[in-house]
Every structure is written in structure tokens, then in C-alpha cells.
Amino acid sequence: MKVIIHDLGSEYAELIEAKCDRVIDADGKYAPCQGCFGCWTKHPAECFMKDTLQQACRIIGQADELVIVTKNLYGGYSADVKNVLDRSIGTSTPFSTYRGRQMHHTLRYGKHDLWKVIVYGEISEDEKATFRYMAERNAVNDGYERSEVLFLEDLSELEGSL
After folding, report:
1. How many Å apart are CA 25 and CA 5, to the nearest integer?
2. pLDDT band at residue 18, thresholds of 50, 70 and 90?
3. 107, 135, 157, 161: which could join 143 in a potential S-S bond, CB 3.0 to 4.6 Å?
4. Is residue 99 very low, low, confident or very high in pLDDT (cuts 50, 70, 90)?
5. Rounded to whole angstroms, how far apart are CA atoms 112 and 97?
6. Is 2 in contact with 67 (CB distance < 8 Å)?
7. Listing from the earlier edge strand, what are the strands of the sheet with 144-152?
8. How many CA atoms lie within 13 A of 72 on its CB side?
């Protein structure tokens, strides 16, 4: 299953929905993670907050391919995309295991194929390097076999990148 998380406006909805199985719109119309860890222990993979991200853990956890479309924010995800990723901690469990000679949380949904990040907006070479490293580490931590980062000069390039 291909899942796209994006912080684009509604004018991109039709394009994005045509390119994937599920969409998570990082529109900021949800609460930030409260850090209660209930999605780890009390009600696995489900947030107690009843908003559009309540099932985000399950949607993201079932993705073979996760595509994140985000505006550059100093070499990191936009605030709205970061909030979605924070709310998806329940894709793993509180238990630890070794993967690639490093300790990581045990995956609730098993391994995945591709963690892909599409970045738009003004970006320096240092910020590009930060994004590449962050995407690689996020992919390892969340059980993705590979990561990819694309930088768009203009959003007109988006369709071919999804």
C-alpha cells in the first residue's frame, strides 16, 4: 500500500489521491502528540485523541511505500508534517531489538519498502544534506529497506515525482 503524507493545499488533493492508496493531509487540523504513549501500550496503534490522526499509526504502519511531501523548514519537515510523524509513534512497540547492529524499537507492522521524502521550497546545500541524513535515519528506525529524497525547484514537478 502506498501512503502519502503532505502539507500542500487542497488544490493538490486530486493529484495526490490519484497517486496512492491512502492520504494523510498534514493540514494542522488536529492536536499535537501529547506524549502519553497510549498508542504504544493502552490501545496499540490508535491515538486516544479523536481527530483525523486517530488511525494514523495503522495507516502508516501498513504502508509498503511512504511518501512525505513537505515544505523545507531549516532542513527538516514542516511543522504540520512533523506533527503527523510524532502521532505515528505507535507503528512500533515500546520493546527494543537490534536492526543493523543498532538498537531500535520493535516494529508493530513489520518491514516496509520505501521511505520517500519530496521537499519543496528554498533550500541550501547544508539543509539538503540534513534532509538526506534525517530521511535515512527515519527509514531505518521505522523499518524501511531504503530511503529517497527529492528536492523540487517548483511544485509543477510534483506529479512526476510521486
Report:
1. 6
2. very high
3. 107
4. confident
5. 17
6. yes
7. 22-25, 2-6, 65-71, 112-120, 144-152
8. 23
How many H-runs (helices) and E-runs (strands) does the chain carry? 5, 7
DSSP string, 40-109: TTTSTT--SS-STTTTHHHHHHT-SEEEEEEE-BTTB--HHHHHHHHTTGGGEEEEEEEETTEEEEEESS
**C-alpha to C-alpha distance for 81 and 77, rounded to whole angstroms:** 6
Please give the grid coordinates belonging to residue 63: 504502508
**Measured between alpha carbons, how far is 13 from 9 in angstroms, rounded to an integer?**
7
| Residue 22 pLDDT | 97
Q: Express each pLDDT in 34-83 by its tens digit.
A: 999 999 889 999 999 999 999 999 999 999 999 999 999 999 999 999 99
Q: Which residue in 43, 59, 4, 48 sits closest to 26, CA to CA?
A: 4
Q: CA end-to-end span of the chain, whole Å?
A: 14
Q: What are the beta bridge partners of residue 115?
A: 66, 147
C-alpha 136/C-alpha 105 separation (Å) is: 16
Contact at 8 Å (CB) between 38 and 47? yes
Retrieve residue 79's grid coordinates.
511543522
Give how far the C-alpha of residue 138 lies from the chain's centroid of Cα atoms, to the nearest Å. 9
